[in-house]
Structures are given as structure tokens and as C-alpha cells.
Design a protein that fits this description.
With 392 residues, the protein is α/β, with parallel strands linked by helices. Helix content is 37%, strand content 15%. It has 13 helices and 13 strands. It comes from Nonomuraea longispora.
Length: 392
Amino acid sequence: MPFPINTVRATYPALSDGYAYLDGAAGTQTPQSVIDAISTAYRTGIGNVGGAFPASHRSDAIVAACRAALADLVGGHPDGVILGPNMTTLTYRLARAIAGPGDEVVLSRLDHDANVRPWAQTGATVRWAEVDPVTGELPVEQYESLIGERTKVVAVTAASNILGTRPDVAAIAELAHRAGALTYVDGVHATPHGPVDMRAMGADFYATSAYKWSGPHVGAVVADPALLESIRPDKLASAPDTVPERFETGTAAFADLDGVTAAVDHMAAMVPGTGSRRERLLTSMAAAEEHELALFQVLIEGLETMPHVMVYGKPARRTATAYFNVAGHTPRRVAEHLAKLGVNVWNGHNYAWELTGVLGIRDSGGAVRAGLVHYNDRSDVDRLLEGVARLE
């Protein structure tokens, strides 16, 4: 059956303002069910966890439900779900607990800086996996010479946040595991664009952020609980020493965690389905990916046929994300022009610091990024193309 785009769009109050939200790669809008879950948690009354009273018990239940939902989303185990304010904060924390002087870490220039700088600042020796600047691909073969007996972690993205490139993470992970190294996969950009199976891709750690898939600003890293038992992060003496709690600092935003669960449930219900929530998520996200890529074909072909537009990257497998420049106009000027026409896009390096350096555009303002998510429709794409065409 076709993706029920009109039904899905109707669940997002923000879309009624008439704008074409092509800024989803920087954060999506939230459906009414997520808004309701967060507000209900506050209205009902919540307390800190571990208490003897009902409000505390409600928070205990919210945390447990959130871990279960995230495990269903990525194919992990609830006891291995680490919660935090965002992926960057969690990655810094884990990097310092895993790697250090004497180790080697293999990083990629395809990655968002949040999966680069935390590892580069541990004191470990950095070895770089390079990107093909024309195609935007991350060749697997190079990892054979990059990974060695001192490699502690191979950090790699599941999808580039500006080019959309989906590298062969499973093949990279196989090489890492053969050498006894761990894999830390940044799934922040990949998660909203299709089904996720962290075990199939060989991810020892899989990081994601709920605000990229219709949830609130909450980050998570999912790993095997047994692996987490072997890692000792710095923590307060009085904080729990259990897994995954010992990786979580401070008090959680409990109402937002309820919103995360609602967002997972929302994505599982975008198309009719049966079975467990995990099964419904796989069905729903596959349908969303098909919808996005069909629209993206129109978007990317439209941009590539314009002689005044330079589109970066031509990866074989990608998310519905376009990164481009318009001749005679700065990226900011293009974004401002489109905003006046009711089209939201981003401009700049978008924290793809290494990649924009490889492309040679980091110091000149980067480029324009337009990203499709499941609630975008053909009219959004047409408005973007019409707006860019006016700049010829």
C-alpha cells in the first residue's frame, strides 16, 4: 500500500503553518502524541526515581518504558540503553571511559564531529579513513590497513548528515571485530530514514537522538549489557554502579523520556501493521524509507539538471539528504531566499567538520542542506526546486 502521507502529516501540528520543513536533518517536528505524552507526564506528577511514593514510581516506569522502546527501535536490549541529554554528551563520556593513551582509534572523515572529536581528544592515536570527495563514498578496503592490534575503537557513521552516504558498516565492523576492536556507530542521521538493526550492522555501540525522529531532545547509546559491565566510567561516589545507570549523570528529564516512548510508538504506527512493536517498526520504517527515496529522486534530479547548482556526493546508498551550492550566491543567501518562500533549509558545515574540509568548502560557508523525512510531500520538494530555480 502507498505510504499514507496525508494521514501522517495530520499528526504534526507544526506543519499547519504552511512552511515546507526540509530541515529535518537538524531536527524534526513532533506529532501530537509526543506533545500529549510530555504534557501528561507533567500534569500527572513525577518525581525522581527510586522513591517510595507514586510520583517516583511513575518516573521509574517511564524510564523502563523508554529503554524498552529504544531497544525495539534499534534492535538492542533494554538493559543496554544509556540515556542522556544528547548523543554528543554521551559519546564524550563513553570515549573517555573506553580509549586513552597507548590505544589507537580509527575515525572517518565522513562523520559528524560528535563521532570524531570525543575520540580524538582521548589521547589515543588517531588513524583516518578517507572519503572519496567526488562520490562521497567511504571505501571499506582502506580499513584493512587502518585497523591493527592496537585498535581499540572504530568509530563510523551509519549515514552522513550532509551527503546521506550509507557506508558499509557491517563490512567495516567485521574487520574491526576480527582485530578485537569495538565499533561505535553514529546512527543519529540514519535512524529516522529506515529500519535499524544494530546487531546486523555489527555495532557494539549504537548512538541515536530522539529529536531527529519526532521525539524530544534526548540522546541514547545502546550496547550489549555485558559489554557495558566491562567499562568503568568516572561517576559520583554516591551514584548507582549498576548498568546502564552508571553511565548516566544527573537527573533525567523524565517527561521527555515519556515523549521518546511516544515517538517510537508513533513511528511504529505510521502504516498499518501487526505483531510486536519491533516488527511494526521494521514495517513502518521500511515504508517511510521508500516514500522518502521516491520523493528524493525528484528532488535530486531536479537540482542536478540546473546548470547553476552544484550537488555534492553521488553515493550508491544514501538517505534522502541533498547538499548543494548555487552559483553566485552564498549558502546563507540561498537559505534566506528560500525562507522567504516558506521553505526551511540549513546552510553551513552542519558539524560535518572533516567532510566539508575534504570537499574544500568548510571555510567558504559550506553549502545548503535539504533533507526529507517521512512527513515531507511532493509539494515540499516542488517548492524547493522552484525557489532554487529562481536564483538562476
